[in-house]
Amino acid sequence: MHSAVLAKNAIAAWLLPPGLFLLLIAIGLLLITRKPRLARSLIASSLLLLTTLSMPLVANALLLMVEPPALKLIPDDAIAIVSLGGGKRFTAYDQIEGETINNATLMRLRYTAQLAKKSKLPVLVSGGKPLGGISEATLMADILQKEFNTPVRWVESESVDTQENASLSAQLLPKNAKIILVTQAVHMPRAQSAFTKQGFNVIPAATDYANQETLSILSFMPKAQAMSDSSFALHELLGMLWYKLRP
Predict the structure, then answer these.
(1) pLDDT, tens digit (0-9, with 9 covering 90-100), for 130-187
(2) Is there a single domain that holds both residue 168 and residue 93?
(3) Main-chain phi, psi angles of 68, to 5 degrees
(4) Which UniProt keywords apply (predicted)?
């Protein structure tokens, strides 16, 4: 396991929900006898925010703050499609390798294959193995070629995060190249920023947009998936802020 990834994920676990609010509740319980007013405020506000962020209505609103418009037209002067890895499963007991891409990456590959067949552009897949095992890019290339009948020209298999996706892809493609970038809609702004900083002219091709269900009483009911979506959106907003603050 890559130490930098381990440290970053550990910090993020306590800066984002639900970890942040669980931490605040624990602090409140520790302070309940010495500073009861502060303790009750911490516990009550944390429970309120946990409940609020677990509502589909709130989760979708947060996702919409981040997600870009969908790709309308493939530009004629783009030179490549760059597809980013979004994680994998180690316990893939149904696969010979014992590992495979997760659902997020599969969504990206499906869209990548559609765009590649429509545009005839070559494909670069990017994703390392921050948690060990087989690199995401190796698995992605194998699936694109064998299951989607889509050839892969470049395999970048050393990156451990979005910034390295961009910097290492820049070593494989021409400088200032116009690329079509494929990733999750909520991840696109941060990914686009990272690739733009590396000199790419980025055409965002986002996929897996938030499911906008019809407003109903269920939109206000706490759901585990809504909490996950809220955390994902806040993670991306925090990441975008970090990218802006970094030189």
Answers:
(1) 989 999 999 999 999 999 999 999 999 999 999 999 999 999 999 999 999 999 999 9
(2) yes
(3) -85, 170
(4) Membrane, Transmembrane, Transmembrane helix
